[in-house]
Amino acid sequence: MGKDDLSMKGDPRTGLAAATLGFFVGFAAVALYGPAAKNFKEVMELSGVMLGLLVAAPQLSGSLLRIPFGAWVDKEGGRKPFLLLLGLSVAGMAGLTALLYLYYPEGLTREMYPLILLFGMLSGCGVATFSVGIPQTAYWFPQSRQGWALAVYAGLGNTAPGFFTLLLPFALVALGLTGAYSAWLLFLLLGTILYALIARDAYFFQLVKKGISEKKAESIARIRGQELFPTGNTVEALKISARISRTWVLVALYFTSFGGFLALIAWLPTYWISYHGLEAREAGILTAVGFALLASFVRIYGGHLSDRFGGEKTAMASFGLILAGAVSLILAESFYPALLGEVLIGVGMGTANAAVFKLVPRYVPEAVGGASGWVGGLGAFGGFVLPPTLGFFVDALGMKGYATGFVVYVALALTAIYLSYSLLRHPAAEAKPKPLPAGLTPSGRVRMEVVYLG
Fold it and tell me: Residue 90 and residue 166: Cα distance in Å, rounded?
């Protein structure tokens, strides 16, 4: 037994570094097609809806795979789920790069559109690494340090789409479309290999894989400092939370804030290029700095505001900013009013993302882990649904549709304000903890996510 104990590898800081690296590498796929959308649109003669589906393709797999892969960590540890998602992402990027080498530009026709979508969805598997890295990181750290560890993980990893939206247009100019995606493939491949080399599962999972019983593995791991352990009841937590109406209210709120955030990372470069006539590099800088990175960093302060004023009030104010930004973008015919609208939406979404997750343990205390899975997974699905919806307005109204399409965000923001207000007005009914079914405890994964969400 002592030999097995001594042979365990890794430590909390290495675990955090590996998870953050893997998430950063995989999450960049949110920006896969957005900065290069104009190139694909012109060569393949895509409609607005087809263009919207193209830029949204990575979000489909990236959102729907969050729930099962996040749950898998409790059974297997994080390393294997992480590597599978990154491997699928590498396969998608390799397929896309090969297709571009063989056919771009003359041979890349509309008939190849389904294949481009498929490679986008495969590449988007890396987006789902978020839900794997959260438990992988949390299992490494004691309760007293999880707030810091998870803030570092989510904060640094979440900046990847912003940086890639910023860098890809410059790579397109310097290397061309095929060369830019080849460089991205190399980055993704090297990042995956580096993750595989340094990542280790928390001590409990290492011991169980050596054939040690879970009870003894937990005892040894506790001596080494591990405090959180899987309960094996993730599926039950999902079932319990799905029966609570407040869970679906929170899903709707996160659909607007985080799903809307993912959608605009992909759509805004096209908006700036097509509607305002900017160069790809200028559009990339505006989307990255004025929206993606801004929203990511504001999210940290949004947690502080939620602690001080309450998640419901913070959410209402945040969705109010999104509403104001959307109206500004609808009315804007010149650069600066449009930039103001983008910044308002970015600040609103970043703050709202923090506020919504502040509300999860308050309104679904009997199954926080399950509710987190539904909110994070289905809420992010907005990143897939919204871009083709915006594209529909372009098809229907022509160039003016790029501005008019933001009426979708007006409707979403108004609905979210109403739902946030309804939570504020009726806070108690389902917020009281209910007796847990036999075998389900508030420890393990559920307790871990309370720390992250709070």
Answer: 21
Nearest to 373 by CA among 149, 54, 36, 130: 130
For the whole model, what pTM was predicted? Answer: 0.85
CATH homologous superfamily of 1-228: MFS general substrate transporter like domains (1.20.1250.20)
- Residue 443: in which H helix or E strand, if any? none
CATH superfamily to which 231-430+439-454 belongs: MFS general substrate transporter like domains (1.20.1250.20)
pLDDT digit string (tens) for 3-15? 444 478 889 999 9
Residue ranges, CATH 1.20.1250.20, the chain: 1-228, 231-430+439-454
User: Of the candidates 243, 452, 443, which has an alpha carbon nearest to the alpha carbon of residue 353?
Assistant: 452
HEC string of 268-322 equals HHHHHHHHHCCCHHHHHHHHHHHHHHHHHHHHHHHHHHHHHHCHHHHHHHHHHHH
Lookup: tokens for 135: 């438990």
Do residues 390 and 408 touch, judged by C-beta distance below 8 A? yes
Reference 201, options 138, 118, 268, 125; nearest CA is 138
Q: What is the pLDDT of residue 453?
A: 37
Distance, CA of 402 to CA of 393 (rounded, Å): 7
